[in-house]
Amino acid sequence: MKRDFLLGSAFTSLADMNLQLRRWCDRVNAEPHGITHEIPFERLQQEN
Q: Which pLDDT score, from 0 to 100, does residue 8 have?
């Protein structure tokens, strides 16, 4: 998160930061994980 989201980001307010962070989380959790090669959103559904 420090290198991928925060580095180089600009926010106009706390609400703006939260919105951008939510979009970033949705994007990265829909992509395969580098070590497990599983998609976190799909893994979460399996674990529930």
A: 87
